[in-house]
Prior knowledge:
The structure holds 2 protein chains of 2 kinds.
Chain A: H1 2-6, H2 8-37, H3 42-46, H4 53-62, H5 69-81, H6 95-130, H7 135-149, H8 152-166, H9 191-197, H10 201-238, H11 241-248, H12 253-290, H13 296-305, H14 309-337
Chain B: H1 7-13, H2 17-22, E1 38-43, H3 62-68, E2 73-79, E3 85-94, E4 97-102, E5 108-113, H4 127-139, H5 143-150, E6 159-163, E7 166-170, H6 178-182, H7 192-197, H8 207-212, E8 220-226, E9 230-235, E10 249-254, H9 258-267, E11 272-274, H10 278-284, E12 289-294, E13 300-304, H11 314-323, H12 326-332, E14 339-340, H13 363-372, E15 379-386, H14 390-406, E16 409-416, H15 418-427, E17 433-436, H16 445-452, H17 467-476, H18 486-500, E18 504-508, E19 510-515, E20 518-519, E21 522-523, E22 535-536
Parallel strand pairs in B: 1-10, 1-11, 3-21, 15-16, 15-17
Antiparallel strand pairs in B: 2-3, 4-5, 5-7, 6-7, 8-9, 9-10, 11-19, 12-19, 13-17, 13-18, 14-18, 20-22
Amino acid sequence: xxxxxxxxxxxxxxxxxxxxxxxxxxxxxxxxxxxxxxxxxxxxxxxxxxxxxxxxxxxxxxxxxxxxxxxxxxxxxxxxxxxxxxxxxxxxxxxxxxxxxxxxxxxxxxxxxxxxxxxxxxxxxxxxxxxxxxxxxxxxxxxxxxxxxxxxxxxxxxxxxxxxxxxxxxxxxxxxxxxxxxxxxxxxxxxxxxxxxxxxxxxxxxxxxxxxxxxxxxxxxxxxxxxxxxxxxxxxxxxxxxxxxxxxxxxxxxxxxxxxxxxxxxxxxxxxxxxxxxxxxxxxxxxxxxxxxxxxxxxxxxxxxxxxxxxxxxxxxxxxxxxxxxxxxxxxxxxxxxxxxxxxxx
Amino acid sequence: xxxxxxxxxxxxxxxxxxxxxxxxxxxxxxxxxxxxxxxxxxxxxxxxxxxxxxxxxxxxxxxxxxxxxxxxxxxxxxxxxxxxxxxxxxxxxxxxxxxxxxxxxxxxxxxxxxxxxxxxxxxxxxxxxxxxxxxxxxxxxxxxxxxxxxxxxxxxxxxxxxxxxxxxxxxxxxxxxxxxxxxxxxxxxxxxxxxxxxxxxxxxxxxxxxxxxxxxxxxxxxxxxxxxxxxxxxxxxxxxxxxxxxxxxxxxxxxxxxxxxxxxxxxxxxxxxxxxxxxxxxxxxxxxxxxxxxxxxxxxxxxxxxxxxxxxxxxxxxxxxxxxxxxxxxxxxxxxxxxxxxxxxxxxxxxxxxxxxxxxxxxxxxxxxxxxxxxxxxxxxxxxxxxxxxxxxxxxxxxxxxxxxxxxxxxxxxxxxxxxxxxxxxxxxxxxxxxxxxxxxxxxxxxxxxxxxxxxxxxxxxxxxxxxxxxxxxxxxxxxxxxxxxxxxxxxxxxxxxxxxxxxxxxxxxxxxxxxxxxxxxxxxxxxxxxxxxxxx
Lengths: 346, 537
């Protein structure tokens, strides 16, 4: 523990990871029970429409669904400990392979959307807060209202209609890459990064073009909470005592705004970002459907519809792990932004 | 094949020609990049396996069995109602078999294989391969085994490889369904040497290997498969099963959203959109080529379950049949695509099936029947629909609900999730009033009756039981169509079930396909893409 003591940050991170173990165990148990509680009989479903009793039974045995629930659970946990997430029946692939392929697709889309969204929403929120009542404040309000009130599948279809169908400047909405490109060698699963790694700029551009419309769709949707939160947090910060003091001390406007007000306003913004990220990853489903994006949201929904147990459990588990990681990153970001927050003590 | 494909050897694999035709276009806009040798098809369904025999293989995957594998025989081609071509159930054509003969007693079928038929790896297709593939289909259980059974193919000992080019099937009883059943996607011929080399003791039929890596002799090889995204077929130039496909490469791209598929086909960036909604078919018909083929041996029906007491009353069932707003359903739920099945003659003069019934919308008649029945004051009944099939079931159910209210039947619509539908409707058969859409692969009326009207059979979701129908179906199912008793038996069966009404036919649904720059589309009973006859227009 000597090393851990000399690096309190590391120790804190280890603590947090240890704390998340019960959460993950809980997720494993609950996702197992909930999938079994789903209505429907996967054996009957996958036996096909014309199957008879005997062939359904054969399939039930093949899927291991004839065993008692508790035994199924131990088999599942045993496999899980060996890193085997099981076989998805609906996609015909191993769940681990499916997730490894689809999670990066969703992450690439969501992260791009969030970067675009932050790039617009944060400056907009800051400007709206510094000049309340001005045209920029009204603009902020309009954008925010429009962003939340337009459902993503609608925005997506409108964007396709205008930029692809009418103007013809967007590429065919055929997923991550048009069929004339070959997907880049897998390094991270993020096409933009993988293509850049091998220096294949042709494919990189192709992937970027495909990414623009869905990312904008998702960005429009996530714009609202970030802009609202930035504006509100900035307003609170700007009206607080320390800003008045800073102004009285004769600091430049710039220093006051970005050095003190913005930094203090960042905390709630980062919290919101974390929340937005989590729901955007799930709310992707509709965007994924419209743009034929092979992401994780549509995968989970399809698996759920056909009671594909392994796939649903794998999805829930992957999401749980992702959120544990996300919360950790956000907490670390807190301490970086505001050193007063004692991370280790938590 | 998928696992071995890296992006480098992919271009090499595609045989230079396709690779060369793609490479120079990489710098141009995608829309312009499609060579005339490539055809792009979009579909909303996902292909989840390259092996039809595998447990859990979905319907969309059947197209791989069609395009990448050969069967002994295939069906002919004819002009289809609604435009384009259709397979022809009446005509059996050779695929791997050069010729075949049936013994006098109808129990022994002898097939001679084409001498020049080879698998993709160059090895010869032998009777041993056929035997192994057929053994597999009857042994693996699940859907393939059930489908083989329909043609009287039950056990491996029925199949014999006499010599390299001669394959013999021995039947327990002669059946007119056997040869057509050899032309459905299920009994496809696998390269058994490759499969056996990849089989294990736990997996004697190489299910794991063939799931990802087809080994066939068919018109197309799988160049690339990304589940959930696309499947790329490359032509097998050595194919001898039929006319060589006109295009070198077919890309099947999965696009779940119907609106997106519609935009793609309208813009012409893809050449074919497979299985589009009726609404899009109706609206696209003026803009691109739309083929709406009524699905053979298939009806969308309203089924009153005899388990539910009021439906045991024949007058109540008649009242239902007169209360259904057929025309409104056909226009609203099917957008006029398919074929109407109401307002026909009561007298049965031919053996066409599905056929127009003698019923039509007449609320007064419906009320008369209700008044005559044991339930003059009406009753309440749940009307069940499947959420998976909501696109036609929901509007249909709403229209039926509205009219039933007018004759005193209070129907409450119950929506059942797709995963439960089969168990509730077909296995437990517990839905009092519901919609159903069975379609038989083998196109004879008695085959439909076997599944949908015989007691205890899967698609008889109304629990219908009529001894005369039982006997007639048993007598007719394997009877040759030339038998003098065949037509009279069918007519009698039609008469009974249209009088008893365990299923009230609403309309015959259509399979809709839009083409923009593709030609040669052919409808098949399996309702999946047959890429072989397609070409660029």
